[in-house]
Amino acid sequence: MSTVEDLYRNYGILADAKDHVEQHKDAYQVILDGVKGGIKEKRLAAQFIPKFFKHFPDLADAAINAQLDLCEDPDISIRRQAIKELPQFATGENLPRVADILTQLLQSDDSAEFNLVNNALISIFKMDAKGTLGGLFTQIVQGEELVRERAIKFLCMKLRTLPEDVLTKDVEEFIFSQSKKVLEDVTGEEFVLFMKILSGLKSMQTVSGRQQLVELVTDQADLEQTFNPADPDCVDKLLQCTRQVVTLFSKNVHSTKFVTCFCEHVLPILSLLTSPVEGLDIQLEVLKLLAEISPYFGNMEKLESNLMKLFDKLLEFMPLPPEEAENGENAGGEEPKLQFSYVECLLYSFHQLGRKMPDFLTTKLHPDKLKDFKIRLQYFARGLQVYIRQLRLALQGKSGDALKTDENKIKVVALKITNNINVLIKDLFHMPPSFKSTVTLSWKPVQKTDSGQKRSSGGGASSESPPKKSPPAQKRDSRQIYNPPSGKYSGSIGNFSYEQRGGFRGRARSWGGRGTRSRGRVY
C-alpha cells in the first residue's frame, strides 16, 4: 500500500521524466495503489492519477476504476476531488464511459457534489457532444429511476446553455433520434420535459422542424385509438399532448388530426369525461383546447360532419327562450343559465371551421333547424347585451390597482368573453352568415402574430407551473355575474395547467407505468 511519501516520490519521478513519462509505468502503478491508503493518500491519488493518465493507455482501465473508487469514497472531500478531475479521463473512446459514469453520479444528494457533476458533464460536452449524449441516453434508457430522472432534467436545463458550435445540426439530429426512442416508454412528466428539450433545439424552429414535432406528439397521442372518457389517464394523455403541440401549429403546420379527433371522438361524449385532476372543469378545458387549435386545421375530409358535431354541441349551451305565461311572465319561474365560457369556445371553433364551409348554415341544415338556431341566437344575444352593459358600468372609471382585485379581474375576463361572443353572433346574423370577424380568445393575451411563424405560447403552455385552484361550483341566478362559478366565467384566468399525472397507456406503453429498475453500479 502506497504511503504519502511514496506518492510524492513517484509523482516527482513522473514529473521530472518530461517527454519520457511512459517509461515509468511502475511509478504510475504506485500512484494507482494510493486509492487503497488512508484519507491523505486518497486525496493525493485523486489529483495525481488524472494528471498522468494519458501517458499510460495500457493502464487506462485500471486508472479509471481507481478514480471511480474515489468517486464512491465515504469521505465527501475525496469524492468531490475525484469527480472534479473526471473530465481529464474523457479522451477518445473513454469519453462515453466517463459520460455514463458522471450521469450515474447525478444521483448525489450533496449539492456541492451535484454541481461538480453538472460542471464536469458540461466540460466533456464541449469536448465531444455526441459522445457525452451517448452516455446520458444510455442511463436514461437503462439506468435506475433517480438517475434517469436527473439525466432528463440535466438535458432540459443545460442543453439550451450550450453554444452553437457545440450544439451543431448533427448533434441536434442525434438528440432528436435518441429522444424518439426514449418516448416509446415515458411518464407524463418525462414527456413534457422531452418536448421542452426538443422544442428548444434550433433545428426545430423551422416549419419542417415543427412539423416533425407535431408528428412526434401525434404518434404519442394515439389519436386513432378508441377514446375512453371514463379513463382519467386516457383523458389526461389527450390533454397533455394537445397542450404540448398547440403552440407549434400555424398556417403551415396544421392541426387537422387533433381537431378531427376532438370533434369526432370527444365532443359527442363531452359530458362523460372523467377529470384527471380533482376540481378541474374538464369540459371547459377540452373546449378551450379545441378553440386554440381550430384556426390551424388544413384540408379536413369530414368537415361537414365535424361542423355538425360542433353545431349540435353548441345548441346544448344555447337555450331556447322560456315560455311565457298569459300575463307575459316566465311560465317556468326561472330563466335558463347562460354559460358564456362554454359558448365562447364552441362558437369560436364553429366560426373557424365554418370559414372553410360558409354555406353550412344555409344549405346543410334543415330550415326548421336553422330557424330554431336563430331563435336561440337572438335570445342569447339579448341576455348578452344586458351582461355587457352591467359589466361596463361596473368597470367604468376603474384603472390601475383597482382592476387588479380578484373581483375586477373576473369582470374584465367576463367582458372579454361577452364581447367575443357578441362579435361572433353578429357574424352569424348576416345574410348569408359571415365568418370573417377576428377575435382573441378571452384567456389569451392580445398580440400581433405572423401566422406563418411559430406562435408564442401566451405564457400558458408550461406544465411546470403549479395548478391554479378552481373555485367550488355555486348556484346562481343567470343575471348575477360578479361571483361566477367555473364554466360560466372561469375564475381561473390563466391558461390550462395542472400537475402531470404520468398515466399514458397504449401500444404496450404505459406513460407512468414504466418498469422499475435496480441495476446498481454499471460503470
Key terms for this structure?
elongated, disordered C terminus, mainly alpha, 523 residues
Protein model, in words:
The protein has a two-stranded antiparallel sheet with strand order 1-2. The protein is built from 20 helices and two strands. Helix 8 (129-142) runs parallel beside helix 10. It is mainly α and 523 residues long. Strand 1 (504-506) and strand 2 (509-511) form a beta hairpin. It starts with a helix and ends in a 12-residue tail after the last strand.
Summed up:
With 523 residues, the protein is mostly helical.
SSE order, one letter for each helix or strand:
HHHHHHHHHHHHHHHHHHHHEE
Shape: elongated
Judged by helices, strands and strand pairing, the structural class is mainly alpha
Radius of gyration: 31 Å
Give a count of the beta strands, DSSP E runs of length 2 or more.
2
Oligomer: single chain
Please report which band the strand proportion falls in: under 5%, 5-15%, 15-25%, 25-35%, 35-45% or over 45%.
under 5%
Main β sheet profile: 2 strands, antiparallel
Tell me the number of helical segments per DSSP (H or I, 4 or more residues long): 20
Helix content: 40-55%
Gap between N and C termini, in Å? 25 Å
Helix and strand topology:
Layout: H1 4-17, H2 25-32, H3 39-51, H4 60-71, H5 76-85, H6 95-104, H7 111-125, H8 129-142, H9 145-158, H10 169-182, H11 188-199, H12 207-221, H13 232-245, H14 256-266, H15 282-293, H16 303-316, H17 340-354, H18 360-364, H19 367-395, H20 406-429, E1 504-506, E2 509-511
Antiparallel strand pairs: 1-2
Helix pairs in contact: 1-2, 1-3, 3-4, 3-5, 4-5, 5-7, 6-7, 6-8, 8-9, 8-10, 9-11, 12-13, 15-17, 16-17, 17-20, 19-20
